[in-house]
Write a structure and sequence with these properties.
single chain; mainly alpha; Rossmann fold; Arc Repressor Mutant, subunit A; 6-stranded parallel sheet; two-stranded antiparallel sheet; 10 strands; disordered N terminus
Length: 911
């Protein structure tokens, strides 16, 4: 039998009937309780200690001594289960059990808990409480009557009062319980109360009054430890995960296990049993604790106790007590939720309006604390609805955060913040700058969207009154011009360039290049006429950014149109790799297109086709913008040249976007469609496309054959139609153009001049054309001119004609220009005969060489240098080097000195 040892403040020690030493009156017996996961009925984990303590109190009550037991614990830690168990064991021992459950919503119902206790029992007459809750003489008499009736009942058998969640009890009922504690010490009455030590509405007078009584004792229900969780799970699964996620809270643990079954506990679903249990715990923890949990959920990783308290609409002590309650319940670990599902449940429970308000307040708090702009902007973005206006005061921090995200490579998130900044409003000049930045940034991942943004910006600028600020300042205008140029919108860029001629002092190389393009009479002329060395210096010294993408684009286009298009291939490949590293699909598409155009310029048809396809695949939208026309144009030309006419026809049959005539990309598409129509013997339709291209180029002041030689294209169509005189006039015009000094333009012009001129001059002109086109690096056009030259020599009866035709066919075949191969030698098989692919035996063994590899190897074995081989076979030096590398690998040799001398000589196995 347990005894008691009174102290200065009274009290007794609850302990089970065992040999456990009795402590001092102030000792607090701490037990761990929880809910079992198995069995049909809910039982208590650690029941030996808990039930032993209750049995001790009940035994002493049976001997005629009153006892009061207060069992305290956080929400979900088994208090109600303990109350039920106490009632069951008391009934089993023959005691009269009177029980009640207090609820927050009934706190204002006077004597509500007391009426639950005496419900159904005779002899209790409870008065209607006074309206002001005061303790009048009648109230005292009523409490005396209540106490007397309990003493009468306890004389017959022990009486056990069980009140669950006493912290929610009404004030009048607590008065009765206090009175009973003072005046029933010698009666066989056991009062079992459960409550939370962190409750915000706990009556401190009531608890203090109980603690003063010598027959009062306290139990503490803690969360489950790992070993107790393991015991609950019965060894069916590891306990670490469930214990960590639930925090040892029995209610959360049970919900977690019920939800996940025998599967892993790491993935509770939103809205599932675990999330519902979290919400239940929060609402049962009190309004302040619920608010604190929502604040902690909104602040996330930036939550601290001090910040949570500052954001609460409650006194600081109440806020700190709420955090303690949440941690005691295992919902929080400090200010962090133990699992994302718990945080998600809290945010979902808050509702959209409450979340938005908390995010706005959190943004102000973080901004006042000097947190990074991205952290502040994240809350502003979370607080904003789709159409909700923002606060102009937030504009600057949103723009700052957007720039930080751009530096990290997250252009899409930056775009969201800039859009929010635009909705926040502000002065017209600031909004113009934001729109401009949006157009610039969007180009990183969606060129079509960037085009639309730029169009809207131009319309806003055009509709604005002068001096309104919608037109921006000089720097904004130059940036706008650069964006228009990068999108190929030359007419609009030229119109703006005429109004702004200022180059900022101290401008960087990239800025100076952009300013030069903007201030020229024709920005496109500046792009094409920039010396190759200047373009390469810019490419060497400039990193790819939003501000430099336009001048870098100009530099690549300049190199492509220069006498060194192979340099454009190298630099565009480097920029393509840089765009891939930046995870910017818009840039990837842009530089893949430029790379494909440079490869096409050299006659690398497979490479051009592959990279144009890459450019289209990188775009979120495959149609609907003028930019899509650029890679599509490369695909059409490559497919037509490779004899893939069906694929090219599908591409030309697509409906053109409305803005097609206003951009450079549309011109490329028109020319590509014309070339395809010419390839499939539709010269009238082809001529219409070429002439429309020329008309638009003239109208925009960009008639540059170095980019689009529409005159020789049209001349080719006119020759098919039998109009040699008109064709000759166009060719002569192109030869008179300054661009005819460039080998590529001059070579193409001379070839058509030869076909439209006197037959006796044809071979000489074609010889010059072949030389010029070979210098330009364009293998396909070189092969075309060689084929024409071979036929001209054959017509003159020259023995060199056949060799020239065969070499032209081989060059076209090496470039995979199937259509041109059929044009040069219609009856020649495109698959090389067996003898051309015969094994070539060398010092290291044998292997199969392709026809082109065998020709290069034969000349190398005869002692020719790579440059001499390049000139003789009309290949680039780089191509010769690549062929020799493959030959060495196939023959298992290391140098040209090891090349066998019995390789078939060039000309004997040409095709």
């Amino acid at each position: 039998m347990a005894g008691r040892r009174p102290g200065a403040a009274g009290g007794f020690l609850l302990r089970p009937r065992s040999t456990t030493p009795v402590g001092t009156p102030s000792t607090l017996t701490r037990v761990r309780g929880g809910v079992s996961m198995t069995g049909a009925r809910v039982t208590l984990v650690g029941r030996d200690a808990v039930i032993g303590a209750l049995d001790t109190a009940l035994a002493e009550c049976s001997e005629g001594r009153a006892r009061i037991v207060l069992a305290e614990g956080a929400t979900g830690c088994g208090k109600s289960a303990l109350a039920d168990t106490a009632a069951e064991r008391a009934r089993a021992a023959g005691a009269l059990v009177l029980s009640a459950v207090a609820a927050p919503e009934e706190r204002q119902v006077a004597l509500g808990v007391l009426r639950q206790l005496v419900h159904g029992e005779e002899g209790f007459a409870l008065p209607v409480p006074a309206a002001d809750g005061s303790t009048a003489p009648a109230r005292v008499e009523a409490m005396q009557a209540f106490c007397s009736r309990l003493r009468e009942l306890s004389a017959e058998r022990p009486v056990v009062l069980v009140v669950d969640d006493v912290q929610h009890a009404d004030g009048a009922s607590l008065q009765y319980l206090r009175y009973l504690a003072r005046h029933a010490r010698s009666s066989a009455v056991l009062t079992v109360l459960t409550g939370s030590p962190h409750a915000e509405d706990l009556d401190p007078v009531f608890t203090t009054e109980l603690m003063r009584q010598p027959h009062f004792g306290r139990l503490r229900l803690d969360r489950l430890g790992r070993d107790e969780v393991a015991a609950l799970l019965g060894g069916l699964r590891p306990a670490d995960g469930p214990h960590r996620i639930s925090g040892g809270n029995p209610l959360l643990l049970r919900a977690l296990v019920e939800e996940t079954g025998d599967g892993p506990c790491e993935t509770p679903e939103p809205g599932g049993p675990f999330a519902q249990a979290v919400t239940t715990c929060l609402h049962r923890s009190g309004t302040t604790a619920l608010a604190a949990a929502r604040v902690a959920a909104v602040l996330g990783e930036r939550a601290t106790p001090e910040r949570v308290v500052r954001l609460l609409d409650a006194p600081a002590p109440a806020g700190r007590r709420a955090l303690t309650a949440l941690e005691a319940a295992g919902l929080l670990d400090g200010t962090r939720f133990r699992h994302p599902a718990a945080r998600a449940a809290v945010l979902e429970d808050a509702g959209p309006a409450a979340r938005a308000d908390l995010h706005r307040r959190a943004a102000r708090l973080l901004r006042a604390d000097g947190d990074p702009a991205t952290a502040v902007a994240g809350h502003l973005l979370a607080a904003a609805g789709d159409d909700a206006p923002g606060d102009p005061a937030d504009t600057e921090v949103l723009r700052e955060a957007a720039e930080e995200l751009l530096a990290q490579g997250d252009a899409r998130a930056a775009t969201e913040l800039l859009e929010l900044a635009l909705r926040a409003g502000g002065d017209a000049l600031a909004c113009h700058g934001i729109r401009l930045r949006l157009a610039q940034v969007t180009a990183r991942f969606d060129p079509a969207a960037a085009e639309r943004r730029l169009t809207d910006l131009l319309e806003t600028r055009s509709a604005a009154a002068p001096g309104s600020g919608h037109g921006g300042h000089g720097e904004d205008t130059r940036l706008l011009i650069g964006l228009l140029l990068s999108q190929g919108r030359l007419a609009e860029a030229a119109a703006l360039a005429a109004r702004d001629t200022t180059v900022p002092a101290g401008a960087s190389t990239a800025e100076a290049a952009e300013a030069a393009a903007a201030t020229a009479a024709s920005p496109f002329d500046t792009t094409l006429d920039t010396p190759a060395a200047v373009s390469e210096r810019l490419l060497q010294s400039t990193r790819l950014t939003d501000a430099t993408v336009t001048p870098l684009t100009h530099a690549i286009r300049s190199l492509t149109a220069s006498d060194h298009p192979d340099r454009a291939v190298t630099w565009s490949r480097n920029l393509l790799e840089e765009a891939d590293r930046a995870q910017a699909p818009g840039w990837t598409s842009l530089f893949a297109t430029l790379h494909a155009e440079a490869l096409l310029r050299l006659g690398d048809l497979p490479g051009a086709h592959a990279h144009a396809t890459t450019a289209l695949q990188a775009l979120p939208e495959r149609t609907g913008s003028s930019f899509h026309c650029a890679p599509t144009a490369v695909l059409i030309r490559a497919c037509s040249a490779m004899g893939r006419f069906t694929e090219a026809s599908r591409l030309t049959d697509r409906q053109l976007p409305p803005r097609l005539p206003a951009g450079l990309h549309g011109l490329s598409y028109l020319r590509a469609r014309g070339l395809h129509r010419l390839a499939v013997n539709q010269p009238h339709a082809a001529l219409a496309d070429f002439l429309e291209t020329g008309r638009l180029m003239a109208a925009w002041g960009i008639d540059r054959p170095a980019h689009l030689p529409w005159r020789t294209d049209a001349a080719e169509a006119l020759l098919r139609l039998g109009e040699a005189r008109r064709a000759e006039q166009l060719v002569l015009e192109q030869l008179a153009h300054p661009d005819a000094r460039r080998p590529w333009v001059r070579g193409a012009s001379l070839r058509l001049r030869a076909l439209t001129g006197e037959p006796r001059q044809r071979a000489a002109l074609l010889g010059q054309a072949v030389e010029e086109l070979h210098r330009s690096g364009d293998r396909v056009e070189t092969a075309r001119a060689m084929g024409d030259l071979g036929r001209a020599l054959q017509a003159e009866g020259s023995a060199k004609g056949n060799t020239m035709v065969r070499n032209a066919w081989n060059l076209a075949k090496d470039s995979e220009a199937t259509a041109l191969c059929r044009e040069i030698l219609p009856d020649a098989p495109l698959t090389p005969p067996v003898r051309d692919r015969a094994p070539a035996t060398g010092a290291g063994g044998s292997a199969t060489l392709s026809g082109s590899e065998q020709r290069v190897a034969t000349l190398a074995a005869q002692g020719l240098t790579n440059r001499e081989i390049s000139s003789k076979l009309f290949l680039t030096v780089s191509t010769v080097e690549q062929h020799l590398t493959r030959v060495y690998r196939k023959l298992q040799i290391t140098s040209r000195g090891d090349l066998p001398m019995d390789l078939a000589p060039v000309g004997r196995a040409a095709f």
